Input
Amino acid sequence: MKNRKVRVVFQPERKEILTSIKTPIREAIEKAGVKINFPCGGKGICGKCRIRVKGKLSPLTSVEKKHLQSVENDVRLACQVAVEGDVEVEIYPLSLISFPKILTDRINRKIKIKPVIKKIYLSLSPPSLKDQIADLSRLERHLGERGIRYPLTDLDLIKRLPGVMREGDFKLTAVLEKQRLLVVEKGDTRGKNFGVAFDVGTTTVVGTLIDLDTGEELATDALLNPQTSFGEDVVSRIDFLQSHPEGLKILQKRIIGAINRIIQRLREVGEVKKENIYLATFVGNTVMQHLLLGVNPTNLALYPYVPVVKRSMELKATDLGIRINPQGSLYLFPSIAAFVGGDTVAVILATSLSNEDSRKVRLAIDIGTNGEIVLAKGKKLVCASTAAGPAFEGARISQGMRAERGAIEKVRLEEGKIEVEVIGGGRARGICGSGLIDTSSQLLKEKIIDSSGRLKPSSKAKEWSSRIIRKNDHNGFLLVEKEKAQDGIPIILTQKDIRELQLAKGAICSGIKILLTCLGVERDEVDEVLLAGAFGSYINPESAHLIGLIPTFPKAKVRSVGNAASLGAIMALVSEKNRKQTEKISEGVDYVELASYPDFSDILTQAMDFGKQE
Ligand code: FES
Output
């Protein structure tokens, strides 16, 4: 009985696997290679990993009873159920992983090139009985004539050196990274000098192929971070690696796999050989950078939140299995604090926020899956991390989803009618961050919620009363009827969802308020507000203003800077000076731990109010 095999069929693709009885469906899904979202990492919190299952299954759990009250009987949560006989599984559209809208836009700025990787062509004098010096010494002698003395090298290069010298008739190109001799290539390979810059986000990974001599961008590509199937936020990923003995290896393998797939695609578009890519730079939040290194980030999530590594890392491509020239180099940005990582250093670099000559007061807000805020006043920089991101990425919102096909991204309420815009057109299957902000602002405008966020139609909002319904013991606003929704499940924004948005908004506003106090700056002294990441690029500024998503800065110019983290990664790729600057930034920015700031909870509560922006 114990070893009895059962058949699990996944529809509509008809993927089929045999597995042991009592196998959790989640394991069967992994085994079959079906791509499904486990937003809370399978902890039973989100209720979004819905599947329709026919066959013999484990009994309904209390978690499922809570989440599946209003759906049909054959719907189950994939993270909760195990197979007890042959079953047929159909994945709900909301549960399927699809490609998100990825932000690749960046501000245009001229980057001064000061190449990190240099190529020097050498025509060596061949050995003779009168000149019997060793091959390596011969190479070093010629490099010395070009002012490069005693370059560091490694055994792999020495092993290949005699072949390269003789096959190329003693004409060769030396590839150097600072004082390190990386590669020797036969003949003249100058002009083929490339690098890749990566922004490794919790949700998306963006890579750019750059000509290192000219700084020209040859191709950009992006993928969903495949670790998302183990949880949408960094805490869920840490939970996953803690509960699976091989978890860390799996997460590292997934991210490196995605990076290598992007490199492959960049090479195809740019028509560049792997051997001619000598350098890769990486920025990410601290947890992502730890996972990329294969270093356990667990202590980052535990008091007192200590990373294993904060400084920058210089490695060989083979150390991590990154598919560029095997002798090529990797540079991982330094971090600032446990939850302010290399991506924030990159944003500071890209926006010149640490420009000591600037007298301006500038504020940068980068909200992705995590949220970071940096305030600069002259030489002083302070930063903080807020838990604002997940709500904007659809996590913790009952029918929330990332900004991908089927997500409601725009909402308008007027004269009793609702207009929704869905990414990719067609029927809606959930709501993303910009849709959430739009809906809340419209509910506020129509007085369906009050400034405290309470969903309670006033006498002025009678035409909307039929849309206020109960869901899971909470009031909710019916956005899309079940007949018009993709899953056949009505799309409702619940009171709890509005609270989540208020928490996110409160986190941003209180973070800003505290940083202003730390530097003794008044709001009307702020000259510029820079919105980095998807947050600044996709939301409707009017809606954001209506709900007071960020405080009002009377004199400040507000500007979206797109994927500034990617730009920072590119800047460090093409300039040694920029790379050095990252170290200065990492050491020079003061981190403020918001949770331990005096009166933080009072400040947060006040900042959650839709009406107040003080
Ligand atoms: S409830 Fe299953 S992944 Fe969240």
Q: What stands out?
A: The radius of gyration is 27 Å. The chain has a mean pLDDT of 90.
